[in-house]
């Protein structure tokens, strides 16, 4: 078997299609292609071709996983769930997870810290709601407790700021609607009532 051509892909300019004996066989990203030293005219035996096909699968899965974590940090469970939905084999998932871990992209403590920081900045909610959200992401209870212990936000201050923000909207001029909204954000009824009276 012979590599007859290597062509840059049209839609994904960072990937190159490798043709063996005149037909498309697999694609690799530019770095992997250079590292492996593949060139047109190179001879491949069946075992080498099988190795490159496996490498191409890993390469593509890793690229997709990087794009997935680039949008926002993910918990370990979210990554495992993503791999399941993509239909990755356990061995492929393990290879990709190890590569991501080497880059520091598989860290539930860092994920929980980023999640809490993001929520505090953009959509304030109660500690109870943060705990619930992190549990939905399958973060360990110990990690959640440690992260929230390090969070210096005062619950009552967060509640007051949220009330001030929502009062600017006409639909939250009614105390009943505002109380329902705040309860959905995980705040305690007595704290809500006290903050509204203030």
What does this protein structure show overall?
- By secondary structure, the protein is mostly helical.
- The chain has three domains: about 5-100, Orthogonal Bundle (Arc Repressor Mutant, subunit A), CATH 1.10.10.10; about 105-155, Arc Repressor Mutant, subunit A (Orthogonal Bundle), CATH 1.10.10; about 155-198.
- It has ten helices and three strands, in the order βββαααααααααα.
- It has helices at about 30-35, 45-70, 75-85, 90-100, 110-120, 125-135, 140-150, 155-165, 175-185, 190-195; strands at about 5-10, 15-20, 25-30.
- Strands 1-2-3 form a three-stranded antiparallel beta sheet.
- It is elongated, with a radius of gyration of 25 Å.
- The termini are far apart.
- The model has no long low-confidence stretch (mean pLDDT about 90).
Short description:
This protein has helices at 30-36, 46-71, 76-86, 90-102, 108-122, 127-136, 141-150, 155-167, 175-184, 189-197; strands at 3-8, 15-20, 23-29. The protein has 198 residues and is mainly alpha-helical. α9 (175-184) packs across α10.
